[in-house]
Specification:
By secondary structure, the chain is mainly α. The protein is built from 21 helices and 4 strands.
């Protein structure tokens, strides 16, 4: 992917490029990743690397090291860098199949799911027999070395996406496309500045747009390669889109989205919860069901049904945890958190009304309004903020019932998902406020957002 193409991706999300000879916003950092790989695997230029002004930056046959990467970073190239380098000892089909076997060993519940449903062999064959374009193998090799967690995520999502495509009775070609899209869905992150990806503080709007551009960069990579189905490139582009129009990059609704993009999207969501949340809690994939039911209409309903169906047939047992030291203590904590979420619903309702009353709403304003409505609806329809449920929890504090522990676990998981949804909404509001509320029109909205943030913090 050339620097120019990466800047095109950034510009589609309102990013801006800089002058040649400096590091532009939207600069392509793939050279930096290649230099990192070069420390272990030789990365050698196969052509002279020439910038857009015809100046030779690097001669053919040179190793791509850190100094060379820094030099390339400052220039727009006439050809994508990946077309002008060769990587020694890169991944291939048999090695990819080994990586899937290792993934299933590392996460026994994932292995159990695939073995129970007969998809472990499907993953093995799809990987071993894959005949991908050399640039795809190059990207996967760099991804594994430079961003191993993202590479592992690709393996996870490829397996789940192929399983769901089969469950949905899609064609073999679509199953292969789903598998490829799952593998490659985040490969565009290789072109984003590492400092942004590794940042632990709150991202600026420009930094968030840089991260969002990875779906555009990924699509550009795939659609330019022979033998890659258009549906795979589209799925990579759409895997952060949501049926209610609250996703990115286009904010498109259900009627404008493709099936495979939603297949990869739900696989991506499942992976994030399983690895980022459940791994440290000792939970397994079946514990995902409460999350999925809360988000039943976030993705295509048929995709949601397929995901629920394969989990229920996985042979896994739900985890019954006791994280608070007994039923009474757990009920008390969930009741307190429920009251705070009930309070948050009121703040959300007020935010929706303020957003509706804004005299002018641009694209981000419309997106913000849809997102606030969606989260508010999710919280109300979940039943978690109803007085009846909170009263039942209060009663359990007085007369604990160990039989209720399974139900308390489900409530705990659902409350965690609602808290994440509110946190994500507040992040989106921060971007909206910075970019579209330069005057005092949104002062009252900011007050409500701060109250919502306070409720969220108290509900930890």
């Amino acid at each position: 992917m050339s620097a120019a193409m990466t800047e095109d991706a950034a510009s589609m999300l309102d990013g801006a490029g800089g002058a040649e000879g400096t590091e532009p916003e939207g600069a392509d950092f793939y050279a930096t990743r290649l230099a990192g790989l070069n420390e272990n695997n030789a990365v050698v230029t196969t052509d002279d690397i020439v910038n857009s002004k015809g100046v030779v930056l690097v001669r053919k046959g040179a190793r791509v090291d850190a100094n060379m990467a820094e030099k390339i970073l400052r220039h727009k190239l006439i050809k994508p860098l990946e077309e002008q380098v060769a990587v020694a000892d890169g991944l291939d089909g048999p090695h990819l199949a080994q990586r899937f076997a290792a993934l299933h060993e590392k996460y026994p519940d994932i292995g159990r799911l695939h073995n129970q449903l007969g998809s472990a062999n499907q993953c093995h064959i799809l990987a071993k027999d894959s005949d991908y374009h050399p640039q795809l193998w190059q990207k996967l090799t760099v991804l594994e070395h430079e961003m191993p967690a993202e590479f592992e995520k690709g393996l996870f999502c490829a397996g789940i996406a192929a399983l769901l495509a089969r469950e949905l009775k899609l064609s073999h070609q679509d199953i292969e496309a789903a598998f490829l899209a799952g593998l490659m869905h985040d490969v565009g992150l290789l072109h984003v500045a590492p400092d942004i990806l590794n940042k632990t503080a709150v991202l600026t709007p420009a930094e968030w747009r840089a991260i969002q551009s990875h779906v555009i960069t990924g699509r550009m990579l795939l659609e330019h390669l022979p033998g890659v189905p258009e549906s795979a490139a589209r799925a990579v582009f759409e895997h952060h889109e949501r049926c209610d129009g609250t996703g990115y990059p286009g904010g498109n609704g259900e009627d404008r989205l493709g099936m495979l993009g939603q297949v990869v999207a739900i696989a991506d969501s499942v992976q994030a919860i399983r690895v980022r949340q459940f791994e440290k809690l000792g939970r397994n994939l079946l514990d995902m069901l409460p999350y999925l039911h809360l988000n039943a209409y976030t993705h295509f309903y048929a995709v949601f049904q397929a995901m629920v169906s394969v989990l229920k047939r996985s042979g896994l047992a739900a985890t019954i945890a006791d994280p608070y030291g007994g039923v009474a203590a757990m009920a008390q904590r969930l009741q307190q958190r429920g009251r705070l979420l009930q309070e948050a619903v009121g703040h959300l309702q007020a935010m929706v009304e303020k957003l509706e009353a804004l005299p002018k709403r641009g694209g981000r304003g419309q997106h913000m309004l849809r997102s606030a409505r969606r989260v508010q609806t999710m919280m109300v329809s979940s039943g978690l903020v109803r007085d009846e449920l909170l009263g039942w929890l209060e009663a359990l504090e007085v007369t604990p019932d160990t039989v209720a522990l399974a139900e308390l676990n489900e409530i705990d998981l659902m409350q965690n998902e609602l808290r994440w949804q509110v946190r994500n909404l507040l992040r989106a509001f921060g971007e909206f406020y910075d970019l579209e509320c330069a005057d005092d029109r949104c002062g009252a909205l900011m007050v409500l957002a701060e109250r919502l943030q306070a409720s969220l913090e108290a509900a930890r």
